[in-house]
Specification:
single chain, alpha/beta, Aldehyde Dehydrogenase, Chain A, domain 2, 2 domains
């Protein structure tokens, strides 16, 4: 199921429609009548009201059940599409929300009075979406629309159909958006088709890891920009005296996300050089994680079985690795002596490592663009400020309380950058 100029079409029409698309794109660009943020926000507001009133519960509720998302959390996430949220986002990222279609952004007189500066959309964005969060592909397109761009969305494999539904209903709310949204279900193996779409685009917006970014760079020409979001690694940093309440909040976060998000905690660095302190901390957290996990929705049996094999192998090799493994009831905490930031086994299995504060920057900085969120567990306020600064200097872009690692706030940056600015360009025009 694809979406082409406001119409839902069958997949078998896809290749022919893509061949016919370039003249439509260039005609849309030449008109210069790109959508204002206000039009996009009004359409999102109408659609959000319908979603919250239960009109799409036949699709939404099975997804919530599948991913163990409460109705309350879903409604909180849905507020990112609200008028208040999107208006705030535009003010933070663009500085204003023009309502006339003549320009997108304020005109500025340059120093010396010889030029106007105006913000324009990049033009055409190709969104290569990840499939780990339903609704994210549609939100990526909304961000492109807020900046005034034409948007071509490549659906992730296994997409539930929610993206096409949301975007088609968004167009019904504001029909002028039809020529600014195209959704295709192109498999990643169809490289020539993807290259065609990338060559038509001013930028390819990639949601994914190093392999996805590398694939985007390989298929895009040198004059097509790559804008990459995620995949990232996130972790917790704790002082040994972190409160049980904070540890419980971190355990809830781990059980709610099963560590599959870029913002999910993969492990805990402890501010110590003492292995005994590390082990005592790990035991304390393991007891809390085990209790919280037993109170939470069970992990998928297949993933639980897979990780049981991983943990069993860890135990077999412990005499060589020196790792200390705490495991029971499908959760594990593995004490390691290295200080590397790495992916965990996920699904309620994590590592605990020693990392004294004076080594934070030298240990984390080599990971550069892979860093995202750090939960900071530290009861001392002055010490917390000191550690926050060190984490920021290391390259971390979000520092949160333990239970808020995956919280979503209006106006927050994506991986340390504002997307609407990335999707825009500044044009200077002489007026003399």
């Amino acid at each position: 199921m694809i979406l082409y100029r406001g119409e839902i079409r069958d997949d078998h029409e896809q290749n022919e429609l893509i061949k016919r698309m370039p003249p439509f794109l260039y005609h849309t660009l030449a008109k210069g009548n790109y959508p204002t943020p206000e039009k996009v926000i009004s359409a999102c507001e109408k659609l959000l009201n319908r979603v919250l009133n239960g009109e799409f519960d036949h699709i939404v509720l099975p997804l919530l059940s599948q991913f163990d998302i409460s109705r309350a959390r879903f409604e909180q996430m849905a507020q990112l599409f609200s008028r208040e949220s999107l208006t705030y986002k535009c003010k933070i990222e663009l500085g204003d929300i023009p309502t006339d279609g003549d320009t997108v952004g304020l005109s500025h007189i340059a120093l010396g009075g010889i030029a106007h500066r105006k913000r324009y959309p990049l033009g055409i964005l190709m969104h290569v979406a990840a499939g780990n969060v339903d609704g994210l592909p549609a939100y990526s397109v909304v961000e492109g629309l807020l900046a005034g761009n034409i948007n071509i969305l490549k659906l992730p494999s296994g997409d539930s159909g929610l993206s096409v539904l949301l975007l088609s209903e968004l167009i019904k709310a504001e029909p002028s958006l039809a020529e600014y949204v195209y959704v295709f279900d192109v498999p990643s193996t169809e490289t020539e088709t993807l290259k065609t779409l990338a060559d038509l685009s001013d930028a390819v917006v990639v949601w994914g890891g190093d392999a996805a970014v590398a694939a985007a760079r390989a298929m895009a020409s040198v004059n097509t920009r790559i804008i990459a979001w995620g995949h990232k690694l996130s972790f917790a940093y704790a002082t040994p005296d972190a409160a049980d309440e904070e540890l419980e909040g971190l355990a809830r976060h781990i059980c709610e996300t099963d560590q599959v998000l870029c913002s999910s905690c993969q492990g805990i660095f402890v501010d110590t050089e003492d292995a005994d302190v590390q082990d005592a901390f790990a035991q304390r957290f393991f007891d809390i994680l085990r209790r919280v996990s037993n109170q939470s929705t069970p992990v998928d049996f297949g993933m639980k079985a897979k990780n049981a094999i991983h943990v069993y192998n860890e135990k077999l090799e412990a005499h060589e690795t020196g790792r200390r493994i705490l495991a029971a009831d499908g959760v594990s905490v593995i004490c390691m002596d290295d200080g590397d930031l790495e992916l965990s086994y996920m699904f309620r299995n994590l590592w605990v490592k020693r990392l004294p504060a004076y080594r934070l920057v030298s240990t984390l900085k080599p990971h550069k663009d892979h860093l995202q969120t750090a939960a900071l567990l530290c009861p001392d306020h002055a010490r917390r400020e000191e550690l926050s600064k060190l984490l920021a200097l290391s390259g971390v872009v979000r520092i949160t309380h333990a239970h808020e690692m995956s919280r979503m706030l209006s106006g927050e940056a994506h991986d340390g950058a504002y997307p609407l600015r990335q999707y825009s360009r500044v044009v200077e025009t002489d007026i003399t």
